Structure formats: structure tokens, C-alpha cells
Amino acid sequence: MDLQLNGKTALVTGSSKGIGEAIAAALAREGAHVVVHGRDSVQADRVVAAIAALGGRAFAALADLTRDEDVERLVAEVENRVGAVDILVNNAGGSGPKSDWQTTEPTQWTASYDRNVLAALRVTTGFLPKMRQARWGRVINISSGAATIPPATGPDYSAAKAAMNAMTASLAKAVAAEGITVNAVSPGTIRSAKLEDAFRNVAADRGIAARNAPWDEVQSGVLPLFAQVPLGRVGELAELADAVAFLVSPLAGYITGINLRVDGGFSPVL
Asked: Which of 46, 55, 209, 222 has a 20 to 30 A CA-CA distance from 62?
């Protein structure tokens, strides 16, 4: 299926590794000119080179999204190079130090809100004016299943991602008449390098499987300890990235304000 992204420009924040890298690669394969964002120039340049090696177009832009001046510089740099961003994927953020309700501190909540919600707010408001001028745009906020089914631990992260969902719904209503769609995507248990390493460590520590055992053996033994996923397996990065690629395409023009849960059926349908 042609997603009609040829000629579009996409910025994926936090795309120098993991989920963001997979999304950037998927958009590039569909013909988009991709801005790879990160804070490590070596990592960002590696992703750009990988995209170019497959015939895609990309360039790197560095910024700390918790700093207003960095975001202002990022917006100016990107718009000077490409004119406007058609597609924005707010992927940067993530969780901080592990905490629970006995150890959590207000400073953790402030930091989590800043790197997830306010980072997305800074970038979105920076690029939104030109989307409005063009009367076309796509904004995706990468949320989390923790926003709707929060665990007992990491309450600051769950709360921040829930705020991103509310932000998504509000912005979607505000810009819908201007040809801009805004959606959230909530990954479930996705096989990133970090997750696979954690699963293999648990498998070895608990005697479930050798650390270097085949992945199917590791995930079948370890996944039930983390989540009861009806599909019975961990999601792949490509599956998440393909879902994002569809949502930002012209083919999804009548979809806005949703939270798409890519989690193998873990979340109940509400």
C-alpha cells in the first residue's frame, strides 16, 4: 500500500535509537524526508547513515527538549533547511529513576512532566504555525499503556503519559478544521534492545532460559512475569512504526483525537 508520504517532511523526536529510530526508518521507507533528532550526534548520525544506505533522505538535528532555547534553535534550524514540517512525532521522553509510592518525590514528577509533556508542548507549538498555514499536518504523541492502566510503581511516568493523552485530545479538537490531525499511540511491551536485554537478564537470573537462548524461548518464559498479553508475544518495533506511518499518512485523514494502543490486546477495549 502506498501511504502517499513521498515529498512530506517528518521530524521524529528521540529518534537516535529505539522506538524513535524505527519510526524514522519506516517514514523514510515510505518516501518522507526525515529529521532525526537526539542529543548524541554519533547516534543521530548513525541513524541518518542507515536511512541513506537504504535510499532514504534524512538529516540530524540535536536539541535538549527540556530547554526552551534549544527548541527555538531546533525549530529555526529545521525550517531553514526544509521550509516546514508536515509530520511531527513526539517520541522523546521516557521514564526516569524507578520509584514507588514510598520513594517518589515531587522533583521526579516535575522532571517526568518536563521531559514528556512539556517537551512535546514546546516542539508542537514551535512547528504548528506552519502546519496551520499549509492547512495540513500530522502530530503523533507517543504515549504509553501506563497512561490508562497505571502500575503501582513509577506513578510520575504514568501521570505524565496520561497528561499527554489529554493534551492530544484537546489539540485534536483545536486544529481539526485546519486540516491537521493529532493522535496518540500507546506502545505495549515492544522488543527494543533495552527490553530484550532486561528479558534475557530475568530469564538467566530466574533459571527460565540461558541468557543467549533463542528469543522465542526467552519471551515465552519471561513475558507472563511482566504482562498478560493475549497475543502471547512481545510486539516488534516494525509493528509499532508501521502503525504510526499509517496514522500520519493522508489515508488516515479522518482519524483524529484517538489513542491507538499497540499492545497485543493487553488493554481492555473501552
From this structure: 55
What residue type is assigned to position 101 of the chain? W
- The bridge status of strand 137-142 relative to strand 87-90 is parallel
Cα–Cα distance list, 152 to 22, 47, 97 (Å): 29, 35, 15
As annotated, the residues of the chain forming the CATH 3.40.50.720 domain(s) are 9-190+235-262
- Return the C-alpha cell found at 41: 550526534
**Pairwise CA distance, residues 252 & 52, whole Å:** 27
Largest CA distance in the chain: 58
Q: pLDDT, tens digit, for every residue of 62-86?
A: 999 999 999 999 999 999 999 999 9
Closest CA to 111 of 96, 90, 125, 92: 96
* Cell numbers at 235, concatenated: 510486539
- pLDDT per position as a tens digit, 138-167: 999 999 999 999 999 999 999 999 999 999
Cell of residue 106, nine digits:
515531587
Domain 9-190+235-262 architecture? 3-Layer(aba) Sandwich (3.40)
The catalytic position among 113, 127, 157, 199 is 157
Tally of CB atoms within 10 A around 199: 24
